[in-house]
Design goal:
Blueprint lengths: L1 H7 L3 H4 L8 H33 L14 H6 L12 H32 L1 H14 L8 H4 L3 H13 L9 E2 L5 E3 L2 E3 L4 E2 L4 H4 L46 H18 E5 L10 E3 L3 E3 L5 E5 L5
Antiparallel strand pairs: 1-4, 2-3, 5-8, 6-7
Helix pairs in contact: 1-3, 3-5, 5-6, 5-10, 8-10
Length: 304
């Protein structure tokens, strides 16, 4: 992941291309990483391509070896507007790598922030655990069919994404038609627009007590917010519009399930060696805790 960060980090020659011949070392590192990425991912693509051909020839795969359908299948026959050919192998590698990289570190970072909030507020932890016991009990683990029926858990996840979005900036957008305006400004065609998410999710004009972490704000009768931005922009942790993250549903479901299982199985407390919890952040591939979380966990009594 650190090597991916190296490759995608902003570089001065992105803005001053005439400097590119003088900044050869980072470029060479990025090219080497790309070669390694292709060598790693392309064999997996070719293996899936062979399975798809077999299925079309009437030879379904062993369910223990391959899924009947996958994200990659939708790309193999993709027709790009203005082109007759399907995506090249290099394009398939890029699309698959984007899905893998975008869906791993972001979720892991969100879970760390979530457990920090659970440890910082015992009443939140108690309410999450109480809801889990009421809905599921201690005879089996929580599964993804349970979490939709846990309103406090869903409110917790939404408040988590409001206070700790995976990145500071949404994916860049660009004006594609002349005459575009934003907040009274004329936006030229092809101009990049970068949206700084905290200015929205912590705007006192949009939120009551915006600096506080309070899942109750999203319970019935409280504040409302559509995290996709389609019903008004108050928080857009996954961006919005046509460039919204395609993993928004999967990401929120994974966070809810993992938090529920971790609270169901363990009681969480700050490690004695750790100073008071510090919610200062820093930017790596995502927005992470500046001081990594240290925790003490006590197993709960369960029947499974």
């Amino acid at each position: 992941m650190k090597r991916v960060v190296l490759a995608v980090a902003a570089r001065i020659d992105d803005y001053l291309p005439f400097l590119r011949p003088f900044l050869w070392r980072q470029h060479r590192q990025a090219v080497a990483l790309r070669r390694e990425q292709i060598d790693t991912v392309l064999p997996l693509i070719n293996r899936r391509r062979a399975i798809v051909r077999g299925m079309r020839a009437g030879s379904p795969p062993d369910p223990a070896v391959a899924a009947p359908y996958s994200y990659l299948d939708s790309l193999l026959d993709l027709r790009v507007e203005g082109r007759d050919a399907v995506p090249t192998d290099e394009e398939l590698v890029t699309l698959c790598a984007e899905m893998i990289n975008g869906g791993t570190d972001t979720t892991a970072t969100a879970i760390e922030w979530a457990m920090a909030r659970v440890m910082d507020n015992p009443s939140i932890q108690a309410r999450l655990h109480g809801e889990i016991m009421q809905r599921v009990g201690d005879a089996r683990p929580v599964d993804d069919r349970d979490t939709d029926g846990m309103p406090y858990l869903q409110a917790f996840v939404k408040e988590l994404l409001r206070k700790h979005p995976p990145t500071y900036f949404a994916l860049s957008h660009a004006a594609v038609e002349p005459g575009s305006k934003l907040a009274g400004y004329d936006v030229p065609v092809d101009a990049n627009l970068d949206i700084f998410l905290p200015t929205i999710s912590e705007d006192p004009k949009l939120w009551e007590r915006p600096t506080e972490f309070d899942p109750d704000r999203f319970l019935a009768g409280g504040e409302t917010a559509d995290i996709t931005g389609s019903a008004g922009v108050r928080m857009i942790p996954f961006s919005a519009g046509r460039r919204i993250c395609p993993g928004v549903g999967m990401g929120t479901a994974h966070i809810a399930l993992m938090v529920a299982r971790m609270v169901q199985a363990f009681e969480w407390r700050a490690h004695p060696s750790q100073p008071p919890l510090d919610f200062e952040d820093k930017v790596e591939f995502t927005v992470v805790m500046k001081r990594p979380l240290l925790a003490m966990v006590t197993p709960r009594k369960l029947s499974f």
